[in-house]
Amino acid sequence: MEYRELPVPYYKINREFQVLSCSAAAEFIFPSTPSWLNLVDEGSQIKAKNYISSTHTNQRVELILSTMTQPFVPFDVYQRWDQDGSGHLVCISRAHQYTAVVEKLGELQQELKQGVYQREAPKERLGVQAYLNVNRSQNRELCSALETVRDLVDQMYPSLVEINQTDYADIIRRVIDNGLKNNSL
Asked: At the top level of its lineage, which domain of life is listed (predicted)?
């Protein structure tokens, strides 16, 4: 089977990360580029340079890559290197694993926005005490939901540390902590 016909995103690169060939699936998902590193998010560049190499052949590396439709997509990059210095990379999306967390964060973001709008509602309509009670109740519910998501991330964190894949968990933690900080004001 030729590389072009592989049913997965595949790249053949040299030691300098120059693209030598790729599969049609890769061309469909990723923008065309002379250097494979151009697909790697700025935050994952150092990791890619350190771990996508012949010294790490047969190892999986999780990186954030830019696709034609989304700028930040988590991928597992499987690699094998030839004796001639050519790297064979297969890129498998991990976006589906983060969908639930992203959806929950989206819901929490909407709740935060709704809370802000309600804070801006005229106090005269509800009466000052009723207005404050509604906001306190919503803040408690929102904080509780954010803390639940943070607890779930904290449970996953030790497993992620073992495989050196804590980038997403750290981002989620920062967003949650920022939301809790902003909501407690």
From this structure: Bacteria
SS3 9: coil
Euclidean distance between CA atoms 94 and 17, whole angstroms: 22
- Number of domains present in the structure of the chain: 2
- Give the structural domain span for 106: 95-183
Q: Taking the CB of residue 136, how many other CB atoms lie within 10 A of it?
A: 10
Residues 89 and 99 in one domain: no
Instruction: Judge contact between 33 and 39, C-beta under 8 A.
Output: yes
Give the rounded percent of residues in the chain with a pLDDT score beyond 90: 36
Three-state secondary structure call for residue 94:
coil
pLDDT on residue 134? 52
**Which is more confidently placed, 92 or 100?**
92
β-bridge mates for residue 80, sequence order: 88
pTM greater than the 0.90 cutoff: no
